[in-house]
Amino acid sequence: MSNETREHIRDWWRTDIVNVEDGNIRYRGYAIEDLIGNVSLVETIWLLLRGELPDPKQARLLEATMVASVNAGPMSPSCAIAAMAITCGVGLNNAIASGINALGDTHGGAGQQVMERLLLIRDSDGTDMHAKVATHLEQFFEEGGRFLPGFGHRFHSVDPRAQRLLELIDEATADGVVQGEYAKMVRAMEAELTRRKGRNIPVNVDGAFAAVLAELGFAAPLARGIFVLARAAGLLAHAVESQTEGRRIKGPVPDDIMYTYSGHAPRALPGAQ
Amino acid sequence: MSNETREHIRDWWRTDIVNVEDGNIRYRGYAIEDLIGNVSLVETIWLLLRGELPDPKQARLLEATMVASVNAGPMSPSCAIAAMAITCGVGLNNAIASGINALGDTHGGAGQQVMERLLLIRDSDGTDMHAKVATHLEQFFEEGGRFLPGFGHRFHSVDPRAQRLLELIDEATADGVVQGEYAKMVRAMEAELTRRKGRNIPVNVDGAFAAVLAELGFAAPLARGIFVLARAAGLLAHAVESQTEGRRIKGPVPDDIMYTYSGHAPRALPGAQ
Amino acid sequence: MSNETREHIRDWWRTDIVNVEDGNIRYRGYAIEDLIGNVSLVETIWLLLRGELPDPKQARLLEATMVASVNAGPMSPSCAIAAMAITCGVGLNNAIASGINALGDTHGGAGQQVMERLLLIRDSDGTDMHAKVATHLEQFFEEGGRFLPGFGHRFHSVDPRAQRLLELIDEATADGVVQGEYAKMVRAMEAELTRRKGRNIPVNVDGAFAAVLAELGFAAPLARGIFVLARAAGLLAHAVESQTEGRRIKGPVPDDIMYTYSGHAPRALPGAQ
Amino acid sequence: MSNETREHIRDWWRTDIVNVEDGNIRYRGYAIEDLIGNVSLVETIWLLLRGELPDPKQARLLEATMVASVNAGPMSPSCAIAAMAITCGVGLNNAIASGINALGDTHGGAGQQVMERLLLIRDSDGTDMHAKVATHLEQFFEEGGRFLPGFGHRFHSVDPRAQRLLELIDEATADGVVQGEYAKMVRAMEAELTRRKGRNIPVNVDGAFAAVLAELGFAAPLARGIFVLARAAGLLAHAVESQTEGRRIKGPVPDDIMYTYSGHAPRALPGAQ
């Protein structure tokens, strides 16, 4: 191995996050034995991602958001996949990984998308937040947008998670923990959407999730990252239930699949019988 | 779809864990809006896996164990894989999934294996725990075992996580939260190992992790499951760092790989030039 | 980086398989430009795994086995998962990976298990193959075995893939390409099973797959590996169909999941409303 | 389950690709027993993706492209990840999946990106292909583009795979199998790039790969899909080598990671010792 390669490898792997030496492990400067038993899992997540421990009230808000995101039931594809995968004879870690792997742009990405939109509205021209929201939505629908991520829900006429998270932002705002500007913004968006559509289009869990993470100053990509950490718990629970119930590999999908092939008469194969 | 298929599918997907109806989500009977802001993430994980909320002191012990498991640095293959995968242009969820997928029997499975051993020792013949431990280890080494999972460490002469977790079990035992039998057992194993080898072979984090989960009454496979949830946070942190630093796809592996092929002169290919 | 670490890394990454230098790529000693256009994909797979190119007739047999394994329809969980994953907004590679990840012991592992059994029977005491088969099955059922992997099928009274693969082994045996001992063995197993059960229990595709790979001298773990390579093509096709059809993330799983939670009245939460 | 749900599920799962009934499996209308032993794996892949069997000369071109893509050595992250994952105690299928999961936009996506560009140039205004190429590149560099995917290589001054694939397109063009327009186009791009940069910037394997798939009429996303199928073979080979060599979980990454944390003195923790 050349010296250049050696230096390149050494440089590629350097990290700010964790230091491991004999008898000594530090997360972002904190000795691990001081963290264990003294800070919560959610505070540790914050420390790793942000480089510093949060205020306990900030942590409580993040914790609430993660509790809200743990599970959305087996009709959520990530849960369905975890429940199916474990019956195929893989490890629990593989079943969880399979579910997480499906938390893509359309499934686990809504929080991140809403958050990017909130930051975009914040940074758009103008001084009045309501006017900025109205302009943004005007443009969204003019450009052919139909469903605004973060608002409305297939199942829920009112999303109980969203209401509760917005309440918690309000409490934290009253406490001076956050400024409350994003809670105001998503409510303004809800009002404007409802006015436009002529029916109630309430904030959903993705909208409230994004508002909390924006209030707490997270970068938008972390909205997906933190959602993944929370949802992993739901995936584990479904995989374990599937395993404990002794579910069989066959069954989750109908076995009388409709075959729609309507092509040509197939070509005669030279060697076919 | 036949009625039989319909019933089979319906039965396959039933769940005890989560109920989702219009405006109403329940985890194990609890309305989600009552959980959000009132219970911690770790308490929610316990609820999903065990069917009931834990006592706060039980939760504190589980939380400590998860904090201890979040990160083991980039020389841990799961972290390394997450840090590499994100540079390949996949989503954060895919990078985390890739890391979790590697938490197999040899990497993330040690806690589960130690826990299975602790339960085996507990259930073995005899009344004196120290005698049971001695018999078990006698047999382990007679059958050719070399390294007992859960004891000793490649890097750490004393593992700071293990000591701290055992202390927390002691405190919880004094508080009547747990019985402390598994903390005693791993200490007895440490003493017996040290006696046999003639040098100190201390409990490591896997051993202490297993002891906590056994004290708390978890089933052994959940030792891996819970480890995965904790480690997911470390994987996210490394993936985000790798992305933020703008690391390139090439670099983590030496580019002057040693080629050891020493076969035959290759066969002449008919069409080769 | 210490010299020891450097040497360790260098040693860890050495490989017999591929050599890459400026303007020069060799697979197992063969220049890539001589392989491209002159050997088939299946011959290249053989070269990479075995270290030498196969005889074209050997390659034809492996190719037939892989064609037989490409697809088993969407009620096969790996296909179902790939079709679901792509609707979640991940890349085609992630959707294929999710499907492959589910090809575990119970799903993609049957070929490997049958192959291990064939080698076990071959190596068992005795000179007469039929007697060895009878003894093995006697023991299998005595020990509580119920369904012998590789024989019988949930859907197919006769598996068209198995019959065709056994015919191809017969042709290759007549040609002197293989010895035909494993085709004989699986047929003897089929006969013995049928005699015992009093109804026809034919070889299925896993049984025939294992017989071909044993005839060709592959190690048993490669039975799963090669199956994965073949099935990957089916997974791609289903993921692409799902994407092209514009399938929605919701839909594959019933949305009226049965909730079976019947626990206690939940504990009153301190902060609950 | 409501009738509506039942119909929705039934509709979600319908497929054109494979029909499975008792004793009868059809891929795109062809009985599987007619395909096995009569068509190659690559022809079967084509059938599944395109709905019809290819001409053998078309298949040969696709086959050559897949042989060229099987392996790029362990400094390719997908290979590295597969080799690392198997040492963690997961199944071969999980190790392959982990590697494929990393074939994202930056790693496995180059072929698809080049192909999209080729189709864009083809459809741009103008009648003279060379002029269209010149205009496109002009714009690419004006907009700040630096490295044109599909051209130039970190290791190879001339990429032996690219030259060989272009030759095979030439032969197929002479045979009337393809029209050769994309081979012309990538050569025109190479010439224009070289003229602009004042040094040779040859077509690389991604460029030639894209040209072949465009000649054969594949949709651009399939460029990644087919690359994944080919590369899966290389991943299997590396995972098996890693397993056979008995490589340890520790070792691929330096164990003396540089810790760059330079933050504040950490905050005193209330409960810390």
From TrEMBL, chains A, B, C, D:
NCBIfam families: PRK06224.1-1
Protein name: citrate synthase (unknown stereospecificity)
InterPro entries: Citrate_synth-like_lrg_a-sub (IPR016142), Citrate_synth-like_sm_a-sub (IPR016143), Citrate_synthase (IPR002020), Citrate_synthase_sf (IPR036969)
Membership in a protein family: Belongs to the citrate synthase family.
One Pfam family in the UniProt entry: Citrate_synt
Gene Ontology biological process: carbohydrate metabolic process; tricarboxylic acid cycle
CDD domains: CCL_ACL-C (cd06100)
Alphabetized UniProt keyword annotations: Lyase, Transferase
GO terms under cellular component: cytosol
Enzyme Commission code: 2.3.3.16
GO MF assignments: citrate synthase activity; lyase activity
Pathway stated in the Swiss-Prot or TrEMBL entry: Carbohydrate metabolism; tricarboxylic acid cycle; isocitrate from oxaloacetate: step 1/2
